[in-house]
Amino acid sequence: MSHLLLAFIGVLAFSPHVLGQDTFDWNKIKPSEQLTWTPCNINFECARLSIPLDYNNPSDRTAAIALMRQPATVPTNSSEYRGPILFNPGGPGVSGVDMIQGFADSAREMLGPQFDLVGFDPRAQMKTIHRSEPFHHGPRASFFASQAERAQLPSPRALNASDDAFGWTYANRILQSSLAGARDDGSLRFINTESTARDMLRIVQAHGREKIQYWGFSYGSVLGATFAALFPNNVERLIIDGIMDPDDYYSTSWMRNLWDTEKTWNTFLDGCASAGKDACALYAPTASEIQAKVDAVFQQLKTRPIPAITSLSDSTPSYHIVDYSLLRQTIFNAFYKPYATFQQLASAIHDLSLGNASALYEMSVEGGIVSPPYLCPANASEVAHEEFFNVQDAEFALGCNDGATVSTDYSDVRAKYEELCASSPWCDAWPVRMNCLGWPEYLKNNKTLSITATTSFPILVISNTADPVTPLANGVKVSKAFAGSALLTQDSPGDEEIEFLIASVSAF
Ligand SMILES: *[C@@H]1O[C@H](CO)[C@@H](O)[C@H](O)[C@H]1NC(C)=O
Ligand SMILES: *[C@@H]1O[C@H](CO)[C@@H](O)[C@H](O)[C@H]1NC(C)=O
Ligand SMILES: *[C@@H]1O[C@H](CO)[C@@H](O)[C@H](O)[C@H]1NC(C)=O
Ligand SMILES: *[C@@H]1O[C@H](CO)[C@@H](O)[C@H](O)[C@H]1NC(C)=O
Ligand SMILES: *[C@@H]1O[C@H](CO)[C@@H](O)[C@H](O)[C@H]1NC(C)=O
Q1: What are the AB hydrolase-1 domain coordinates in residue numbering (predicted)?
Q2: Which of 23, 179, 264, 288 is most deeply buried (CB count within 10 A of its CB)?
């Protein structure tokens, strides 16, 4: 899974470079109510846990979730052993199994030898799932009959890119929701955060414990907070990191994400100005001069896109047209991990000003904003494998099932967009609320869970001061909702606190 669609569909998550590559054949493991660990992917162990598909009818059908762990390096019978920590990488819907493979080594360095580091796939994730057996393996979210069909529906452009970009996105989302309904195998409605929180309790109990140890990022903060609100007495140690406002999420508003985005952008401008010519290709003595250079590139691209011809992974040339929209999206995507991307971004924008779009295109592919051209596999088993690409579908399924119904009234949708734009100049890269337009209606559980509690151990809330999508204000708010919780702030840009911990200390 190397080409996730991340920022532009609103995924709040670890980025592809942090995710591992899972090559394990999960069908080898029969799901069971006990955790039976099987060695997999060299340094890991895998298991599949049976869970009720529907917690309101637990004896009805079962489903299975995939787990992967890096076991503690102290013996489990030693006094140092401290049990499992569950991780969630965000999304919603991103695979915790992929995450733990990419993240376990740095987590181990930070946390020490005494914990099992456990990634699990949230409901909606597909990796363990065989198409013909949805209930035994599911629930799954996959709206497309094949990867080829998926490739026919292009990704939306930045919402201000042209006169029809907004309306085009509206239509695209209606279409996608209609596909979601048409392709539902009956399990779609059981994909939601409350059930995922219940799944987590099952995972903890299957470890022979009653209380959770958990670290969740971005959307993982909603999952963690929901768990804490549902099961306040089952909290051992719980960290939520990069905070979404649960009320904003559950009301499908997506209005409280962009309050600090401009701060992230300003760290780009200021960082470039102070980094000097050698470190920043867009260098000018002041931030406003650098802004002017970028504006000039935007201005040009708005009417004159630039062709890109480049070689991606192998020597096959790849062709694309880099336009205004792609630049907006690529910049926004870079905000998630400034330490890894800002220098490259400055250089790519500089190249654009010289008429060379290769580097920007390559960044957009690396960031998962555009997929490389779809090539039909010659081999049927690869076709089957391709069907498992569903990160975007998983995000839609969780977000739209969790959230209140979004009215399809066009002027209402537009008005909500204008409201978002009043909060940030980056609103055109944040179409997330539109994801749920026309989402299938089935009987929703209307009771709203109040995300507040006095937990059996105080929770830890972590926020960055210049986070592009999970602003500090949300950390302040959520921390107030949990008695005794502490708010730890880190003075840095980006949505991946971890990136800061393991990377250099300057974005340039
Ligand atoms: C822990 O288990 C191992 C393997 O079963 C055994 O050899 C060892 O003596 C045990 N240690 C303690 C402290 O019980
Ligand atoms: C465009 O930039 C790339 C580096 O990103 C370079 O390899 C390529 O030669 C440049 N193309 C032209 C036509 O200068
Ligand atoms: C088809 O693809 C599968 C999975 O990548 C591979 O194991 C198999 O060898 C391929 N078969 C042929 C005939 O290339
Ligand atoms: C995008 O459009 C919105 C709504 O009309 C407007 O408020 C905002 O300034 C525009 N932003 C950009 C970058 O064009
Ligand atoms: C939830 O609210 C909707 C709209 O008000 C209503 O149609 C539906 O029956 C309600 N669902 C339940 C489970 O009460």
Answers
A1: 84-274
A2: 264
**Is residue 134 domain-resident?**
yes
Answer whether residue 248 is part of any domain: yes
Q: pLDDT digit string (tens) for 430-456?
A: 999 999 999 998 766 666 789 999 999
- Which amino acids bring their CB within 6 angstroms of ligand 4? 160, 418, 421, 425, 428
User: Using DSSP, how many helices (H) and how many strands (E) does the chain show?
Assistant: 17, 13
Report whether residue 261 contacts ligand 2, using a CB cutoff of 6 Å: no
The response to whether residue 75 sits with its C-beta less than 6 Å from ligand 1 reads yes
Ligand nearest to C-alpha 405: 5
Q: How far apart are CA 124 and CA 126, in angstroms?
A: 6
Q: What's the CA-to-centroid distance between 336 and ligand 3, angstroms?
A: 36
- Of 405, 439, 444, 447, best ligand 5 pocket probe by most atoms within 8 Å of the beta carbon: 444
85-113: per-residue pLDDT in tens? 999 999 888 888 888 998 999 999 999 99
Closest ligand to C-alpha of residue 299 is 4
Res. 186: pLDDT tops 90: no
pLDDT tens per residue across span 227-238: 999 999 999 999
Supply the range of the domain harboring residue 124. 3-138+190-252+447-504
Burial class (CB in 10 A: 0-12, 13-18, 19+), 415: exposed
Report the separation in Å between the CA atom of 428 and the middle of ligand 4, taken as the mean of its atom positions: 7
Average pLDDT taken over every residue of the chain: 87
Model pLDDT, residue 366:
85
Residue 499 near residue 335, CB atoms below 8 Å: no
Do 225 and 277 fall within a single domain? no
Contact 63, 190 (CB under 8 A): yes
CA distance 36 to 121: 16
* Span 215-227, pLDDT tens digits: 999 999 999 999 9
pTM of the model as a whole = 0.90
- pLDDT tens-digit map of 149-174: 888 888 889 999 999 999 999 999 99
Looking at the structure of the chain, the number of domains it has is: 2
Radius of gyration of the chain (CA): 22
Whose C-alpha lies nearest to ligand 2, atom 12?
356
Position 400 in a domain? no
Which pairing describes strands 62-70 and 44-52: parallel, antiparallel, or unpaired? antiparallel
The answer to whether residue 45 sits within a structural domain is yes
- Say how many Å lie between the CA of residue 201 and the centre of ligand 1: 28
Is the CB of residue 69 less than 8 Å from the CB of residue 87? no
Nearest CA to ligand 3 atom 12: 379
Task: Report d(CA 493, CA 265) in Å as an integer.
Answer: 9
Structure tokens at 240: 């939520």
Q: Is the CB of 79 under 6 A from ligand 3?
A: no
